[in-house]
Write a structure and sequence with these properties.
Strand order of the largest sheet of chain A: 14-18-13-17-15-16
Distance between the termini of chain B: 6 Å
Helix content of chain B: over 70%
Radius of gyration of chain A: 25 Å
Strand content of chain A: 15-25%
Number of strands of chain B: 4
Number of helices of chain A: 17
Low-confidence stretches of chain A: 1-38
Structural class of chain B: mainly alpha
Largest interface: A-B, 60 and 57 residues
Oligomer: heterodimer
Low-confidence stretches of chain B: none
Distance between the termini of chain A: 41 Å
CATH class of one domain in chain A: Alpha Beta
Order of helices and strands of chain B: HHHEEEEHHHHHHHHH
Strand order of the largest sheet of chain B: 1-2
Largest sheet of chain B: 2 strands, antiparallel
Structural class of chain A: alpha+beta
CATH topology of one domain in chain A: Dipeptide-binding Protein, domain 3
Strand content of chain B: under 5%
Largest sheet of chain A: 6 strands, mixed
Chain lengths: 595, 332
């Protein structure tokens, strides 16, 4: 007996030692599969801009999300995280929404609650919609035009429901006359003049000024209907009232969330959602690596956050489970921006010197390399946005001749700037983003070669709005270079660049036009863009705006971001969508087996 | 004894007051001095001025610091009402603040997460006391032996290796590799065996660090005590070695161990941040880390207060236990 136990222990110890040895040597091993899977995975990049295993979806089962971060809010008015917008389609519907198709097609609009896309009249200032028959809330009551109006009115209540996008408020009520439904003294709290509801089925929007992206704004989840008697105001995000195929069963912030079928939702009323699983669950993890290991082990189906696997999980997955991975372009651009209020960045030649002096390959490596970081960024419009040209437009040769930095050209620019021996400046970077800190260090190292001495200031990342969002503070602190990233709210130049480049968006607090761009040509192009109803003209203007921004030398783009995302063997009908910046489109994910 | 207790409780209350004042100053005054508007950290990336102003109103951020502290105190006993923009939020007593990020009152969240942290701390404490103290005593009794040297090398390893390393390694081996333990937290009410399964690796990881420290302290103290006159006398009287060690030496050895235990348990109850984060345990430590990342000040303040309270109570209990262990100690 004793001998057997000792022998057992030895075996266990040997097994443990073997596992440790295997874990420690994994990094040194080469190989791995090339994309084919022995386990039923669809293959590497099989769901990147195309549908993987579409026909295998079965009704039933529990779709399991894991996540390292909870949503900012599950209230459709307040949420701003990309994954929240993606997930919210399970329990909310909009007049129009993005098509449930892969890649660029997924960014096109299609009717949802409405019977068709808008009937646009009055030179683009009136949008009319009619609601479908059979659309209902989770208690079976019909969704009416007044619910749509009330849901949109909530965007005005920024003092109670802060956090979400405010495009609708800015476009429908630019002068801020309406005070929001909670301060609305009319009997029905539906006093917003810009929206008419002549009957329960019709919604009419009256824009004071045309905006060609208005329908895109209506596709955001902040345009979802909310029923007045179910509005719990600031607490609504803890249990939103469902208009979609699933409803909240339980939610413990930071711990877990479970959706179950909304039995009052009717498939016939919804041309978008297939509602394959019976239940959808989210478990929140505090250890991103633990989450990745659980994904690899098959305990969960996909990462809710969709921001890419952690370095450890990614290494293992790329070597051993490549067939479960996709490598989409995220729609985000990672960059450095030069505030013109901080000398010597008021001079375009000093800005250009930094752009030419930087080692772009090194910056790409700091972001994670070509696979996990992205392609070298050459301009400021994401390839997924209409008018974006990707690496084809590379005015500084960042991905070409100058990809390792062009010291001679940078020194020429320094001379032209009146700083032939270089200068000193400060790079501001969020302290809670290790990859951004790595890019700041990479930039610092390459700038030394041209005589630019850059100190790095790691500021409190959770205070971004107050620290770099305040131009006065930026000037006071002497932040000549700010490291940031930005993605489109909706795939247009307005949805991406308006807050970054239009001078009207320079704010004393919460500013995103860090470069302090006051270019009448750019402002004028944005005005033309919002007035144009012709898609090809809009695309042309978007390209022109991007060119103007690059010609101004306000930005040093690092990468057109890519990430590595995991999909389990169980998943079916999986595809990435440009509507959600390269994330998987959650709403029609299915399971191959319901067990 | 009663007078002692009253005096200690009064001192604890004063200490808590000082802690609240210091924490308030750090969280609300320092950013102000640094030119950062705290209210902006509560709103999204398109910071609407109305939203920022409403946060200021709701949290009373424009009020003088003494007024904010007073409102906070009042809330603990009488609850608080936060109102702005037509939205009224009631935080029932004991109100230790309200998070406008997660729209939750601080106290219910902390009490919901407290059992996880308490279970972690107590389970690990049992392990580290049993193994740490036993290893320390045996090492002292077999000083210079292979056991002693081996145990102290392991102890040195335990003290030197950070929890995020041993935690990740234990997960990699036993959970992801050998798949012996699932290591996912399950509430005790849902499944007792599931709970044990989810807690065993965190317990061992945490206990490995602390057992190592306790073994080294126990060994050093025991060695010192074994050289004392009263131990020699006990042996000279012909008492059995078990009695000398178990009854006389151990009792004195336990005094510093108990002091350490009080402080360690107190600190752990405030949240074993690294262990809870590594194993994704939904306890106070995980919450406070999340709150720090999101600058969710009400939660940071709440957990800080709970930690301080736990340390104060643990120390009070330890002081009382001194009198039980050591007859020379009188609480007056």
């Amino acid at each position: 007996m004793t001998t057997q136990r000792t022998s057992g222990r030895r075996k266990q110890a040997m097994a443990a030692a073997a596992v440790v040895a295997a874990l420690l040597t994994t990094a040194a091993c080469g190989g791995g599969n090339s994309g084919d899977s022995k386990n039923g995975a669809a293959g590497f990049d099989a769901a990147n801009n195309k549908v993987a295993q579409a026909s295998a979806a079965k009704k039933g089962g529990t779709l399991k999300f894991g996540a390292a971060q909870d949503a900012d809010s599950w209230d459709t008015t307040r949420g701003y995280y990309g994954f929240m917008w993606d997930f919210a389609r399970y329990y909310s519907r909009q007049l129009v929404t993005d098509k449930t198709e892969p890649g660029k097609a997924g960014a096109q609009l299609t009717p949802d609650l409405a019977t068709g896309l808008a009937k646009v009249s009055d030179g683009g200032k009136t949008y009319t919609y009619t609601l479908r028959d059979g659309v209902s809330w989770e208690d079976g009551k019909p969704i009416t035009s007044k619910d749509v109006k009330y849901g949109i009115e909530r965007v005005w209540a920024q003092d109670v429901l802060s956090g979400g996008p405010t495009y609708l408020k800015d476009v429908l009520d630019p002068d801020g006359k309406y005070q929001g439904p909670y301060k609305d003294t009319s009997a029905d709290h539906l006093g917003l003049k810009a929206i008419d509801t002549p009957d329960d089925k019709t919604v009419v929007f009256h824009l004071p000024k045309a905006n060609s992206d208005f329908e895109e704004m209506l596709s955001l989840v902040s345009a979802s209907p909310v029923r007045q008697d179910m509005d719990t105001k600031s607490k609504y995000g803890l249990h939103p009232f469902s208009s979609g195929p699933y409803k909240f069963q339980s939610y413990n912030p930071g711990k877990d969330l479970t959706l179950v079928r909304n039995t009052n939702w009717k498939q016939a009323s919804d041309p978008i959602r297939k509602a394959y699983p019976d239940q959808i669950s989210i478990k929140f993890f505090s250890n991103a690596n633990d989450l990745d290991q659980r994904l690899i082990a098959g305990d969960y189906d996909l990462d809710l956050n969709q921001t890419g696997m952690s370095p450890q999980g990614r290494t293992t997955a790329l070597k051993e489970h490549k067939g479960n991975l996709d490598n989409p372009v995220s729609g985000y651009i990672r960059y450095a921006v030069f505030p013109q209020t901080v000398k010597p960045f008021d001079n375009i030649h000093c800005r250009n010197a930094v752009i030419y002096g930087a080692d772009h390959v090194s910056l790409q490596t700091a972001r994670g390399g070509p696979v996990a970081g992205g392609d070298i960024g050459t301009n400021m419009l994401p390839p997924s946005v209409a008018g974006g040209e990707g690496q084809k437009y590379d005015p500084f040769g960042l991905a070409g001749a100058n990809k390792n930095g062009n010291v001679a050209k940078a020194k020429e620019e320094l001379k032209a700037c009146g700083q032939p021996n270089g200068f000193s400046t400060t790079i501001a970077v969020r302290n809670n983003k290790p990859v951004e800190v790595a890019t700041a260090e990479s930039l610092q190292a390459s700038l030394k070669k041209i005589g630019v001495n850059a100190q790095i200031d790691q500021f409190d990342g959770s205070q971004t709005t107050g620290i770099i969002g305040s131009p006065a503070n930026v000037q006071k602190k002497g932040y000549g270079i700010i490291i940031m990233g930005w993605g489109p709210d909706f795939p247009s130049v307005q949805g991406f660049g308006l807050p970054l480049w239009d001078s009207k968006y320079i704010l004393p607090s919460g500013n995103n036009n860090y470069a302090m761009i006051k270019d009448t040509a750019i402002d004028g192009l944005f005005d033309q863009y919002v007035n144009s109803l012709d898609d090809s003209k809009k695309t042309e203007i978007a390209t022109q705006i991007n060119h103007k921004v690059m010609e101004g030398g306000y930005y040093l783009p690092f990468v057109f971001e890519r990430f590595i995302n995991w999909r389990s063997d169980r998943l079916s009908n999986v595809y990435t969508s440009d509507a959600y910046s390269g994330m998987y489109d959650f709403v029609n994910l299915g399971l191959k087996s319901t067990k | 004894m009663l007078a002692y207790l009253i005096r200690r409780l009064f001192a604890a209350a004063v200490m808590l007051l000082v802690i609240i004042l210091v924490v308030f100053s750090i969280f609300f005054l320092v950013p102000k001095w640094a030119g950062v508007d705290v209210a902006t950290s509560f709103v999204g990336k398109q910071a609407d001025p109305a939203a920022v102003q409403a946060v200021r109103e709701k949290l009373g951020l424009s009020d003088p610091i003494y007024s904010q502290v007073w409102e906070f105190f009042k809330g603990i006993f009488a609850g608080r009402t936060y109102a702005a923009g037509g939205d009224v939020t009631r935080c029932a007593a004991p109100c230790f603040g309200y998070s406008f990020r997660s729209e939750q009152a601080v106290w219910p969240v902390l009490t919901d997460r407290f059992p996880v942290t308490l279970g972690l701390a107590l389970g690990a404490a049992v392990l580290w006391l049993v193994f740490g103290v036993a290893a320390g005593v045996l090492s002292a009794l077999k000083r210079g032996s292979l056991w002693d040297r081996g145990a102290m090398v392991v102890a040195l390893g335990g003290v030197s290796l950070p929890i995020y390393f041993t935690g990740l390694l234990s997960l990699a081996i036993f959970s992801y590799g050998l798949k012996w333990i699932d290591a996912q937290y399950v509430p005790i009410g849902q499944s007792f065996t599931g709970w044990i399964g989810g807690m065993i690796l965190p317990w061992i990881t945490l206990a490995f660090l602390y057992a190592a420290m306790y073994a080294r302290i126990t060994r050093a103290t025991m060695l010192e005590i074994l050289g004392e006159d009263y131990i020699r006398t006990a042996r000279a009287k012909g008492l059995r070695e078990q009695t000398v060690i178990g009854k006389h030496a151990m009792r004195s050895t336990m005094t510093p161990i108990l002091t350490m235990l009080g402080m360690d348990l107190g600190a752990l109850i405030g949240g074993a941040i690294l262990t809870e984060t590594t194993f994704s345990l939904p306890g106070l430590g995980q919450k406070v880390l999340d709150a720090i990342k999101n600058q969710d000040l009400p939660f940071i303040l709440g957990v800080t207060l709970i930690t301080s309270l736990a340390v104060l109570i643990a120390n009070l209990v330890v002081d009382i236990l001194y009198a039980v262990i050591d007859p020379r100690v009188r609480l007056t």
